[in-house]
């Protein structure tokens, strides 16, 4: 099974350390991470 994580964001640069920590805490890592900055 392949997992893709899609993260929509808008001016959330200061939150990226928290987002990356949350991704690392998952039991199954995504194969791809797609960030959509609008």
UniProtKB/TrEMBL annotation:
It comes from the Bacteria. InterPro entries: Glyco_trans_2-like, Nucleotide-diphossugar_trans. The keyword Amino-acid biosynthesis does not apply. GO terms for molecular function: transferase activity. Keywords: Transferase. Gene3D superfamilies: Spore Coat Polysaccharide Biosynthesis Protein SpsA, Chain A (3.90.550.10). Residues 4-37 form the Glycosyltransferase 2-like domain. Pfam families: Glycos_transf_2. This is Glycosyltransferase family 2 protein.
